[in-house]
Amino acid sequence: MAVSDAERADPSAVRLEVTLPCDTRFRALRDSVVERLACSLGCTAAGAATRAVTLATSGVLDHPAGSVYSSVAITFTTGPGALTIRVRYLVDPGAPGPVSGPAVQRILSEGGGDAPLAAMRRLASRLEFGRVDGAECCTLVTPLPAAT
User: Fold this and answer.
1) Roughly how many angstroms between the first and final C-alpha of the chain, as a whole number?
2) For 40-67, what is the mean pLDDT?
């Protein structure tokens, strides 16, 4: 993820990336990192941010089509009044099958009102799907309090 000129100019901007294997042993670490970082940055909705990232990762990785992913890269970036969390779903380049992986948004939409995507939309102030560096991604934005 490129860092904008505005982020470079802001000495208080934070950018942190953690890449974790798609293995259930790392779920507690993922949740702890998201919650502690969100709290440290003053995110009043740290619990909601953690739940949204949990849904964005487990909702895909627990799905049968999600087995093509080898790891997830979670990038945290602060900007003017917001914490942006981008989850990139990395496909194992040596795995047989499709190189691009399944459509993350489609997988997260399964289940109607109880779908992970429906809950994520309630938890994040903004939610976007796309591709970054060839990998599918989900970007969640949650507000940060104004600096005093």
Assistant:
1) 28
2) 79
* Contacts of 95 by beta carbon, 8 Å cutoff, 6+ apart: 68, 70
Q: How, if at all, do strands 135-143 and 15-21 pair?
A: unpaired
Name residue 90's beta-bridge partners: 71
Q: Are 121 and 100 in contact (CB under 8 A)?
A: no
Q: Tens digit of pLDDT for each residue in 93-111? A: 776 655 555 588 888 888 7
The two tokens of residue 84 are 């942006």
Q: Mean pLDDT score of the chain, rounded to an integer?
A: 80
Domains and CATH numbers, the chain: 14-143 (3.30.565.10)
Task: Show the tokens assigned to 22.
Answer: 């798609």
Both tokens assigned to 63: 């799905």
What pTM was estimated for this model as a whole?
0.81
Greater confidence (84 vs 10) lies with: 84
Cα–Cα distance, 87 to 55 (Å, whole number): 11
Query: CA torsion sign, 41 to 42 to 47 to 49?
Result: negative
* Sequence-ordered strand ranges (E) for 6-134: 15-21, 69-79, 82-91, 126-132
